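no rush on this but wanted to send it before i forget. theres a chain ive been looking at and ive put its sequence and its fold in token form underneath. please have a look and point out which stretches look like helix strand or loop to you. thanks a lot i owe you, the record is right below:
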Amino acid sequence: MTKSRWHIPTQTAGTCLALLGYFLGHGHGGREFIANNVHSLFAYILQFLLIVQILFGVYLRGHWENGLNGRIRRLIRPCHSVVGKAMPLLAWTQLVFGGITALGFCQGDHLGQCAAHFIMGSSFVAYGILLNIVLLVGQVWMRRTGRSQEFFDSCGIAGWGCVNTFTEHRWGTAWVRNDWQHTTLGVIWWCAGLAGIWLSKDRDGRPKRHFVPGFVFFITGWAMSAHPQELHVSEATHAMFGYTLMVVGITRIVEISFVVRDEQSLAPDGRSWNSFQYIPVYVSSLLTNALTMDCLPTYSQLIYASGFLFMGATEEQMVLIDQSDMDHVSYILILFSIAFMVFLFSNMLIHLYDRRSGPVANSKDFENGYAPANVRPMEEGHARDAEEFELGGLSSDDEEGQGMLRRNRDGSSRPAGVGI
């Protein structure tokens, strides 16, 4: 949108909505929440960054580039870009804080497990969105990096496993069943992640796809499906989370081995994909939102699902559902519905970016299967139409010139302006 004529109107409309929400949140005169809650405190940070972003935008809009203004402009442009890219992440964080504050969750002894689940759940959703981007518009970029997708997945798995290995047990206290499961899951994550990094290149150093991330998701799902819980609704939700992660792992392995056959994408220009590749992306994201209580293309949709399942299963959430008239089936269906809406929204934004970014280029001009940066491959039909149009014009000119030459030889006529 930065290169679009709708950039400034969109930013202006968003700013107006943010200001309206700020004043409504402080002047509604209705329900009062815990004083100095995280949602209200974080609102001040967002408003400050929004004002700074507006000032940056106004200054850059002035196009002052001479002398001191030129040096200031070189400093402001990257800051404006960083703040703009951080806004979606900060807005998501504020949405999560709003839900927590509205329900009065994550207070006292519940803070640690609540934070862990929402952080992990949000990470699943973010991972699903990234996989969605790679699936739809990032396949050519992935080939340009000289790395396979599983290399980046394995790096993330290894890093997160190291964190979980040393943070899931409160040191100095007795070990319980959940501590053992969480910690050993962290161990297998970093062990498998290191193995995945090693397998990400073949014997000649070329990028190589493999099964390790899919297997990690499968084994994690199996562990989560048997995770001990006190409440029936919590046990059922965790079991569904585990089953969904197992589906993520299986579909991921099937996708790599049989759908794309160890290639980065189905087509060299990266503009084609199989509908099967949406399944893991969606389900993973849903699972993360529902299971925040304890404890990631087809592939990306499953990840959306697992994300929401994980975030929707904190201790307090499970107690709330258990004391209501809602059963675990209805609760899980609601979480799957939310995951579908986020999945739809992310696909709409990716499609908008794909349609509005960069000039169109003919995929036949790619060198070694790679496209220039900021260039969108042209549909073959469009390229063929353009080629036929150009050749048609040349053919018409040739036929006209040959006709004139024949008439001159017959002496019946001569071109205007030729010797008198």
About this structure: The chain is about 70% helix and 0% strand. The CA atoms of residues 141 and 273 lie 15 Å apart. The beta strands are 360-362, 376-378. The first helix runs from residue 7 to 27.
